[in-house]
Design a protein that fits this description.
Chains A, B: Its cofactor is Mg(2+). Two copies of one chain form a homodimer. The first copy, chain A, is α/β, with parallel strands linked by helices. Chain A has five helices and five strands; from the N terminus they run βββαβαβααα. In chain A, a hairpin with a 4-residue loop joins strand 1 and strand 2.
Chain lengths: ~190, ~190
């Protein structure tokens, strides 16, 4: 499974691509940063980000995209641009028919270090170990994107199991409902 | 000039299209609302909004798009979705090569009523008068989008003049700089 992790942003958008399967250590394929100049109009910046994302999808053909979930409590001065950039990521991934998941920073920290409150250095150390790197991913702005991709690779089977369980529950619920209605009809 | 006004949102996105020229009263061509269900995944909602916008552009061929500028101080629970929706509007408009402008709510109120702190009812009354409507635009969620379009139609010439003045200033600055450098070279 190949996962594209995205740390969304307008000025700097972190991009990380990893590949891995259960039982094998994942490998880092790409760590990159997409930049757009602050003096450019927002629409142009988003269009430039969209073109870069489409290019990554065409070149690396990932199976899934993991993007950081943006919260309103984040840095207020950049929150709007970050949310707009994350929207473009969700849009491009969905249009391409990919699995697109959002993970919170604490989900990423917990998945990678076992501690949802781990600091950047601890996450970086674990990412290095997991991906067998001699140094943290460079450029530094891509490190969070790589961590997101690792988090997704590890959480994806659990998410799939939860979805499957939900489908089974819905099915069982539907069958129970059908039986109840049949009983009701017999009584009427 | 035909202007598409957008009041961005994921659950309800207001759409208003007007047409007008200097000297003529503008006419309302469309007031509509694009809805996406809250239980749908964000990427799907954004993709659905994108398709609707592309359709409006194809059908109405506006010359410009005016979208409400989203601020971090707005309702925190919906701010991320609103920002993502506004990003898709900016993206689609820019990709189509259109003039895309962002106006703040107080710019819209000031342009329409002369008072940046006018309430919804005052803006609605003025929009009715300007567009010669017998009732406020319906659906109600589209009223803000129509007001944005009117604001843009009226502010567009001023914005064009400001841009032109900026270009002239830049040109003059460039010429002054060239003269200064030539003088410097003569001294050296």
């Amino acid at each position: 499974m190949r996962v594209l992790g995205i740390d969304p942003g307008l000025t700097r958008c972190g991009v990380g691509i990893i590949e891995g399967d259960s039982g094998r250590k994942p490998a880092l394929l790409l760590a990159d940063v997409v930049r757009t100049p602050a003096e450019m109009e927002t629409g142009q910046r988003l269009a430039s980000l969209e073109r870069s994302l489409v290019q990554y999808l065409a070149e690396y053909r990932p199976d899934a995209i993991a993007v950081e979930r943006v919260f309103a409590r984040r840095d207020v001065s950049t929150i709007i641009g970050t949310a707009q950039a994350s929207g473009v990521v969700l849009l491009v991934g969905t249009r391409a028919g990919l699995q697109v998941a959002q993970h919170t920073p604490s989900e990423v920290k917990a998945a990678i270090t076992g501690n949802g409150r781990a600091d950047k250095a601890q996450v970086g150390q674990m990412v290095m170990r997991i991906l067998k790197l001699e140094a943290p991913p460079r450029p530094a702005d891509a490190a969070d994107a790589v961590a997101l991709a690792v988090c997704h690779l590890w959480r994806a089977p659990a998410i799939a199991r939860i979805n499957e369980a939900q489908v089974r529950r819905d099915l069982a619920m539907g069958q129970a409902l059908a039986r109840a209605r049949a009983a009701q009809r017999r009584l009427a």
